[in-house]
Amino acid sequence: MKTLIHAIFIAFTLLLVTACSNSNSSTSSTVIHLNDNWKFSEASQNEWLSAKVPGCIHTDLLNHDLIDDPFYRLNEHDLQWIDKNDWEYKTSFIIDKSTFSKNRINITFGGLDTYADVYLNDELILKADNMFRGWTLNCKEHIKEGENTLRIYFHSPIKVGLELYDNYPYVVQSSANDLAKIGKVPGEKWVSPHVRKAPYMFGWDWGPRLVTSGIWEPISIKAWNTARLDNIHTIQNHITEQSAQLTSVFEVEANEANDATLSISIDGNILTSKKVNLKKGTHTYNVDFEIENPELWWSNGLGEAHLYQLKGELQTTAGIETFSHTLGIRSIELVRENDEVGRSFYFKLNGKPVFMKGANYIPNDVFLDRVSPEKYEHIIKSAADCHFNMLRVWGGGIYEKEIFYDLCDKYGILVWQDFMFACNMYPGHPEFLESVKHEAEYNVRRLRNHPSIALWCGNNEILGAWFGWGWKENNEKEQPHGAKAMWQAYKDIFLDVLPKAVEAHDPAKQYWASSPQAGDTIKTNKIDGDDHDWRIWFRDVPFITYHDGAARFVSEYGFQSFPELKTIKKYTIPEDYDINSEVMKSHQRSFIGNGAIKRYMDNYYRNPKDFESFLYVGLLLQAEGIRTGIEGHRINMPTTMGSLYWQLNDVWPAASWSSIDYFGNWKALQYFTRKAFSPIIAVPDTKTDDLLIYCVSDNFDDKQGRLELEIVDFEGNKLWSYQDEVKVKANTSSIIFKKPLKELLKGINTTNAVLSTKLFAEGELVYSTTSYFKEPMELNLPSPKLKVLTKKTDVGYEISISTDMLAKNVYLSFDEAEGWYSNNYFDLLPGETKTIIFETEENIEDYTSKLVVRTLNDTY
Ligand code: BMA
Known about the structure:
By secondary structure, the chain is an alpha+beta fold. A six-stranded antiparallel sheet has the order 3-2-4-9-6-7. The chain has a six-stranded parallel sheet with strand order 25-24-23-22-21-28. A four-stranded antiparallel sheet has the order 1-10-5-8, with no helix packed on it. It is found in: Secreted.
């Protein structure tokens, strides 16, 4: 039925549905949440203490002061006993007469971590074995009117893992990320490939080894008589600016054949309804509809991420059942076409090619129940504020909670969604494949309505590891049958089970088997597919290498830093303040980490005089490196069409590749990404014989621009200047200035000169930056006299800062005060003034004297 959505307005149906993307509410059925009154005990100890659900054993122990903070100093190492134990959780709840009288009573477990035997009134109703899926079962015959008990027995994931390991005929190849040694696993066996549980909890090169158990998602009961509306999947058949052709697929479970009416409302207005004959059992029913002149969902920076609220209703004689989800109308496509370079790899959103700017995202904590809605919002909003339009949910973490995708929908962040497989081979026995099948179907069905989901990807780096890290050769030599079995399991999982789940449940989305991967072949290359560019960091090449040979889509590249001192203070004591101390080494999980940081630092910066200076210079080093990467990728547009650096966030306070630390503080890199990912940038390149200025624009229209260049010395004397009209070409990169450096720099002392670049579009300053002709270590930085004025405001403090001479990488900090600085680590030119807001809820006594201002020349 063709209907203009706002034309029909039925007042009494104007119900505002929640912002939650998939919500299942109803009037004909009863829903009871079972997240209260939980207790836990070490199995068979019978010493019950209150527990938090959703939660995990580590946070429950912590809440009762039974263990010390696992992140503090070396505590992690003493807490490895927890995952060798079995744990029990129990609660009781009341089922009233009316609920009990319903024909069907289902119990749903949103997520059990991991090997869980579930007893309802002491009868075993479920043996769960996969953290990543939910479980729904009919419990009518086990439940009773009045008081019921629910008890969940969690087997140690390590003990079960060891059994699986020992019973499997081959050693399943894992990587050094499985920190079996820290985990004190007998024989240091890699159990993680066998256990369908968040891989990073077994350790990673940025995270601790803390293997949890527990109820990590909510539990509920639903009772009904006639029919239950299980799910609605809204398929976007054809999207243009004029019209969205949609089909909502209702999935209904009916106890008996019945007449029913299905209807769809958008933003509270009924759009269409349809009579159907429900068949007994679970069946799907399609409702087609059209929205004329739809407001499209655009990714961040290109327009509004418009969200409609869709509500589906199932009306039977027993009453009304509803299911709601947010609807972002958009088309998304991964375009892979032969071209003069090789084969394209770019996303088209609503028919337009869009360069993807963003990062790889990992979970926000090892203990998932600690991640508050505010933390999720801070992380995603930070990404949006820095012009990101894509996050890759990396395959070693979790399929994220609903709130993550709701926020991505809201902020216009597309999601490259990995399935949870990373840097391991996997066993391929039928039970494992069956478990993976359920996991994949569960998560594809759960997430497919989110407009943010752009791509399903099978795994992280497994293809590359098998063929490129010696895994294939070593296994073929040492366990030839094992090698064959592992490769067969690879094909079964990533070329069969997972793509079939996508095809069956989210056919509009594309599937990419492994990241990185080139074409349909097995090797990565720069001309086809996506690339993880780890030449910088792992292979010691200079940062500027990012400017040559960028691949079609760079889905990983990165450089580490330690967090700022404020964060380090939270997990150390002053005697740990040395990167070679036991504590600092334990919070550095990359086996080449400290050496790589030091070597790169020696190439670009003077030797920092103390620990604090080392931290600050390290943050700048990382920021400069990744800025070079972002710029290198963007100037290579449209050959390169994506730049996702490794990694946005942290699971604990430590050295890592993150741009936001565990406590949510922006590292220098986060500020640098905000600039480098701006919609229009000008990139001065002084690394060849010419000064080149590239202009990169993400806008869909050409703009009239103006380029202003100036070279000044560090005291502020003007040495050269230039200005001209330029064209800011739409959605591409172009060179807007070129001049031989020799000519330009004649008579200029480049150790005392800075280039200021300003780009205007349609009369408005859209980008300004400073660049140098020498590395920071070669610059003769003066000691500037900074004028700092601080005042209290409604949101915190306002700092206005100016300088007489060049102040390089100005870093402001109110020591340990928690908050967010609107800008930091910036260059201040002679005579320039900048105003920074420090947003904080803290009242800082003596704030003028508390403010510490640091510049690069202070570090040596
Ligand atoms: C990539 C990621 C992660 C890892 C990172 C840094 O390989 O996929 O596995 O943490 O590099 O080494």
